[in-house]
Amino acid sequence: MSGLILSGRELAATIRADTAERAAALTAAGTPPRLAVVVATDDASSAWYVRSISTAAVKAGIVCKVLDLGADAEVETIRATLADLSADNMVHGIVLQTPLPAGARLEDLAGAITVEKDVDGANPLSLGRLAAGLPAYPPATAAAVVAVLDHHEVELAGRRAVVVGRSTVVGKPVAHLLLDRHATVTVCHSRTPDLAAVTSTADILVAAAGRAGLVTADHVKRGAVVVDVGTNPTEDGGLVGDVDAEPVAEQAAGLTPVPGGVGPVTTALLLNHTVRAASTLA
Ligand code: NAP
Question: Whole-prediction pTM value?
């Protein structure tokens, strides 16, 4: 471990360099990697995220096409767009941005993204393959959690891991990835009674609830490693995680910061998955 603050920035830079190298080789061989991002929302933070993906993609040498279907897009229009992109040989990675219009569910629509191009692990088949130990792209955020732990040389095998959150995009895939790495995994959620009693058994605690300040020092065993996935906007336009950072950092052996922890690694891995998909499909 490199200290109390387990930054993701250095790792993200390493992944970006690998991505750029692979993208340049693919482009030189006549297959520039292409990512399609399908948007059906006018949510401001989503727009910010899409812009940051596009900018990072272009910097890495990936062609990024944003298809804005509008916040009132019909479910069938979104599904047909994803199916067209799945069939398009010029496209290698597909992301369906959330939130979606009322009545549309990511789990339903993402089935139209072919698994080979599902670079953010949104198709339920990708999660199923992950659970079965078969190759698939995990959601980039879930992969980023494990990548940050690996980067800081946190031992996973035989350790007790507790994940707070059971969404299909973060909590469940993180639990599968940690299980694959031989951790003993417990998943908590909003109906878990006495959350602190469970989380304080963790050697590795992953907070992915989207609740600012949920994880306090009382939730953390002395010497645990804490990964804060939460991104909660503050009134002054900033961002905080789910972890009460200062007291928890004193208690823990290591804590990922927000921002600058899981976030930059997530974006870097999404693009890395895209060049890997392009290599496989080329
Ligand atoms: P989500 O779909 O809202 O899921 C939240 C999960 O947390 C649910 O399983 C929920 O339980 C659980 N939960 C909520 N309140 C809880 C409480 N008081 N005690 C215990 N569990 C509680 O959110 P998500 O999409 O997984 O995202 C989680 C967080 O990660 C958000 O802050 C999001 O912005 C952030 N995120 C960050 C990145 C990144 O790149 N850094 C990427 C994606 C998401 P129930 O299932 O019982 O409702």
Answer: 0.97
Q: How far is the CA of 190 from the centre of ligand 1 (A)?
A: 10
- Evaluate whether residue 274 is within a structural domain: no
For residue 5, the CA-to-ligand 1 centroid distance in Å is: 22
In a domain? residue 156: yes
How far apart are alpha carbons 135 and 149 in whole angstroms?
Answer: 21
Per-residue pLDDT of the chain (282 residues; tens, 9 = 90+): 434 899 999 999 999 999 999 999 999 999 999 999 999 999 988 999 999 999 999 999 999 999 999 999 999 999 999 999 999 999 999 999 999 999 999 999 999 999 999 999 999 999 999 999 999 999 999 999 999 999 999 999 999 999 999 999 999 999 999 999 999 999 999 999 999 999 999 999 999 999 999 999 999 999 999 999 999 999 998 999 999 999 999 999 999 999 999 999 999 999 999 999 999 998
Query: What is the span of the domain harbouring residue 173?
Result: 140-263
Q: How many helices (H) and strands (E) does the chain have?
A: 10, 10
Q: Does residue 101 fall inside a structural domain?
A: yes
- Ligand 1 centroid distance, CA of 18 (Å): 30
Does the Cβ of 30 fall within 6 Å of ligand 1? no
CATH of the domain at 53: 3.40.50.10860
> To test ligand 1's pocket by mutation, which of 9, 11, 167 has the most ligand atoms within 8 angstroms of CB?
167
